[in-house]
Amino acid sequence: MRTFAVVGHLAPTGDGFTLDDLPGAAGRMDILCRCVNAALSISHGIRRDAEIHLILLGPPSPPKDLLIQGSAVRSLSPDERSTAALLRKALALPTGDTFRESSPGILVRRGGLAGLVAEGGYAVLSKDGRDMRTLTDLPGGVLLSDHLDFTAVEEELLAGLPRISVGPRVLQADQAITVLQNELDRREAGWI
Amino acid sequence: MRTFAVVGHLAPTGDGFTLDDLPGAAGRMDILCRCVNAALSISHGIRRDAEIHLILLGPPSPPKDLLIQGSAVRSLSPDERSTAALLRKALALPTGDTFRESSPGILVRRGGLAGLVAEGGYAVLSKDGRDMRTLTDLPGGVLLSDHLDFTAVEEELLAGLPRISVGPRVLQADQAITVLQNELDRREAGWI
């Protein structure tokens, strides 16, 4: 299983946002939608062996952990607006400490970065990390941030985790996921 | 200069499309917007050394060649809707055989794939191509298609061009551009 987790520092935790302004009023939900696409979609298909957590920290009731599972998700289109509509539906659900399914493969729970880190297996995607191509084993899970840096409190949670880098330029979150997926594809197919 | 060119087989050649349905009514304009982002945007910045042609073949007046130049473009946001709005503005301009600027770094002309291929320097991104990582020199320009395969007529135009592949899985057009940009970044920075 390939697991990704992205922290959306401003992303809404309720369904009261408009699909017409994902970057602004919806707290950069556009970034998170692109990350879902990078993690789960390929040409004319879904990566059934991948999943992505979106850790949402914006108003009105943070933190929430939205989980989209490639193994089960249906009607996932690659465009931002359709994906945002699907996520918004999940954010309308009342949340507890365990995951609750909104539609097939889309689940939501109350929970933030600390809980996810405690589950183990993550590395942090970072410009200061070790080049992914030089690593013998790639991590099963990768954590990254949206357009904002991790806060000091978050960095403390992540302090013990390995750090990996996808390349010399600092990419957008979804671009970094795409590059990492390609490296994983290559290793799986023996293209290295 | 890194040049990309994407053929949008259904993409509108006029400004009469809605931003609320880029995948449907707007002929998969969402794909082209993501390609612009992959070609030109990085985290908090624009790739000034890159440009992308969008070859639009949908109604009402195909073909059109939209050129977005990283060296000059301003107010380019990574989200699909903002990018589509910017492109739509350019599609309102009357077009001739030479490029006309709609806003800084966004130009439009009447013209299709044949003209672009005639300008030279392109390779075709294809699942049957040679693995980019094995090539000593990467091409200066790369041509690819949207969600549809190249037509038989287009394949004839492309017959003499080299073909390269970015990996073992067939990716979405923008994902392929992102992976290729990473390879180019690595070579430029001596990370290989």
Structural class of chain A: alpha/beta
The first-to-last residue Cα distance of chain A is: 20 Å
Please work out how many helical segments of chain A DSSP would assign.
5
Helix-residue proportion of chain A: 25-40%
- Tell me which protein chains meet in the greatest interface and how many residues each side has: A-B, 39 and 39 residues
Largest sheet of chain A: 8 strands, mixed
Low-confidence stretches of chain A: none
The Cα radius of gyration of chain A reads: 16 Å
- In round numbers, the mean pLDDT of chain A is 97
Quaternary form: homodimer
- Major sheet strand order of chain A: 6-7-5-4-1-9-8-10
Quantity of strands of chain A, as a count: 10
Shape of chain A: globular
**In percent terms, what proportion of residues of chain A is strand?**
25-35%
